[in-house]
Amino acid sequence: NDKGQVIVGSDGIPLTGAPKVIGNAAPDFNLGANTRLRFKMLTLSAVIDWKKGGQMYSGTTGLMDNYGASKASAEARDKDAVLFEGAVKEDGKPNDIVIRGYNNIQRYFQTLNTIDESSIVNSSYFKLREIALRIHLINKTKLNLSLNLFARNILLWTNSPLLDPESSQGNTNMSGAFERFTLPQTKSFGAGVNVQF
Fold first, then answer.
1. Mind listing the pLDDT tens digit for each residue in 21-63?
2. Helix 71-79 crosses helix 59-66 at what angle (to 10 degrees)?
3. Angle at CA 60, nearest 5°, toward 59 and 63?
4. Closest to 175 in 3D by CA, of 37, 29, 54
5. What band does 171 get if pLDDT is binned at 50, 70 and 90?
6. How far is Cα 197 from Cα 23, in angstroms, rounded to an integer?
7. Strand, helix or coil at 159?
8. Closest C-alpha among 80, 111, 78, 102 to residue 12
9. What local confidence, expressed as pLDDT, does residue 59 receive?
10. DSSP sequence for 92-121
11. DSSP state, residue 129
12. Residues in contact with 141: Cβ distance below 8 Å, sequence separation at least 6, in sequence order
């Protein structure tokens, strides 16, 4: 409606509105930082990334609901009840229509999957991109020997419900704006030896 509230029909299922812009993929800002701390034989370095704002279409979210494989659909089946909270009925009163019964609950989630707006998620994140430790074993004029240990993509903070917001598919025009069962960023761990002489 004019107030931005979702309207449900007499069965408690959201009504489909006219096509319109339903999200903005552009973030408010992207920020990256790195640091390096050295103490005696040890050097610790870290790289962080922060993306604030922006939205993306999460096909995974909608399809998991559609197939009854999401946490939300499982909880609704277990309770035998689902209510679209925050919506209003066609007369403008707050929605209080509880949907019950396996088939009705399934129809509710399948209908949501056909409404693209229900799959728009926040794509903000804060990520520890990399942390590395270098141990300087030998540091002489003619010989330097050090051991390196690193880990990448090990910590992620996001409001995105199911996935890493960097998981997207498509060409560069769609990167960061659309995903559907896209593989997440992988974590990686490694070690190396540096020898200089």
1. 888 888 999 999 999 999 999 999 999 999 999 998 888 888 9
2. 30
3. 85
4. 54
5. low
6. 56
7. coil
8. 111
9. 87
10. SSBP---B-SHHHHHHHHHHHHHSGGGGEE
11. E
12. none
What pLDDT is attached to residue 138? 86
pLDDT at 170 over 60: no
Please name the residues in contact with 81: beta carbons below 8 A apart, sequence gap of 6 or more.
Answer: 98, 99, 100
Give the separation between CA 28 and CA 63, rounded to whole angstroms: 28
Predicted pLDDT at 126: 95
Predicted model pTM: 0.77
Torsion of CA 46, 179, 26, 31, to 10 degrees: 0
Query: What sign results for the dihedral spanned by CA atoms 56, 173, 47, 137?
Result: positive
Token reading at 177: 């704006």
